[in-house]
Specification:
With about 80 residues, the chain is mainly alpha-helical. The protein has one domain. Helix content is about 85%, strand content about 0%. The protein has two helices and no strands. It has helices at about 5-20, 25-75. Helix 1 runs antiparallel to helix 2. The longest helix is centred in the middle third of the chain and has 49 residues, at about 25-75. The N and C termini lie far apart (about 55 Å). The relative contact order is 0.09.
């Protein structure tokens, strides 16, 4: 699921709580809450993937900077 799809689905599920609609069956409420938690988990996973990519990019830039610094020191 894409980030936008997750957000739309989360808002749809959250709107059930806002409009005061009741659940006729206790199992239905539990299933609804499980879906909500699953979508929240997927949203966190998407953010973690993005953060990991940024961290890897930062590590690559740091390594390049170290190499450039080493070359500058060696060829002084």
């Amino acid at each position: 699921m894409k980030k936008n799809q997750i957000e739309v689905e989360l808002q749809r599920l959250a709107s059930v709580y806002e409009n005061g609609a009741g659940f006729g069956d206790p199992d239905a409420k539990e299933e609804h809450e499980r879906k909500f938690q699953l979508l929240l988990h997927k949203q966190v996973q998407e953010l973690n993937k993005k953060n990991n990519k940024i961290a890897i990019f930062n590590v690559v830039i740091a390594i390049v900077n170290i190499i450039i610094l080493a070359i500058q020191i060696l060829f002084k």
